[in-house]
Design goal:
Radius of gyration: 31 Å
Order of helices and strands: HEEHEEEEEEEHEEE
Shape: globular
Number of helices: 3
Largest sheet: 8 strands, antiparallel, barrel
Strand order of the largest sheet: 1-2-9-7-8-4-3-12
Amino acid sequence: MTNEKRERQRANRESSRVEAAREQQTVQSRRRFIYGGLLLLVLLLGGAVFVLTSDDDSDTAGTDTTASGSAGSDTDTPSDSDAATDTPTPTATECPAADGSSVRTIDFAGPHPVCIDPSQTHVAVFDTSEGEIRVALDTENTPLTVNNFVTLARWGYYDDTTIFRTDPSIDIIQGGSPHTNSPSDPGPGYTITDEPTFDLDATTGQVIGPYRYEPGQLVMARSAGPNAASAQFFFTTGTNAALLDGQGSYVVFGDTDDSGLSVLQEIIGLHAATGSLGGAPSREVTINSVVIEVS
């Protein structure tokens, strides 16, 4: 083989090596571009998920446990300290058995689906240690609130709980805390939407609603801010409840009859100045069960 031929072969091999190296570099560059793009996409998606799921619970899970103050102030209102729990059981897609036979559950992954027929009449029957309280629930004006209460009752949420607060200054008795039987109960793990949507006072930022209060009503307690009720409730037992009219943001979703009001007044008559909110029954008042009658 001549020197000239060997030189051409060596040149061809060198050219092939350079071309192969250039092609490999191009492939690596493409891979870096693809991987970099994918990483950027993941980071962007991750940031979007954080923005969509991150929330400030300060307005929806308050911890107001202050003692009673002057009538109508934030310190003497029926606050609900419910907050999210760590062990949701079951998912929010489930409805309990209408006959109340489902296994008792007090922690949930989120608000309940619609489990009632608002066109039907719903009556909540409170079997308490002081007597029976029958409450006609207002499905016409507060279907979301009634649905939440009925569904919790059918899960047994309120069974074997206590009335943990009495307050004659605003004529209320409060309950609905199965974990702790206190205002600091963690609640079912969610909050519900106000009915109707409330306004915010331009000066104080306080939620202002249209409700007016009179004896014999079943009302949702709430913490500060909009959409802040979940499970705690209170009954109005006398005319002092009208001192809450200036706020009007506690959703009234049921009324009892004269017999039920008599039981409520007996309970508040047990008031003793004790507890974190300034008053509780002098003896334990138990809610044995809440049964829902439908017709």
